[in-house]
Task: structure prediction
Amino acid sequence: MGLLDLWNKPSDNIEAVVTRAMNENKTIKISYQNYDGEASERTLSQLRFNNEFQNDGFFNAHIKAFCHLRQEERTFKISRIIRAEII
Result:
């Protein structure tokens, strides 16, 4: 199985990949679908949980990370991550 095959294989547990990347200070590559349904591929580093939306019932449901595509810190909803891979 090649690297492309691994990338095209859906992650069984995206939260586990994200949490592992946080704990090990790793960079991840994700496929992400935004609120409007638009998909994009992102490379994220400096991951951490974002609980700014905790009062709305979202505890550890979002991450903040440096997005290499946008070259700035962005917030991502974990449930909208389609695939995740530690790189």
In short: Residues 1-11 have pLDDT under 50 and may be disordered.
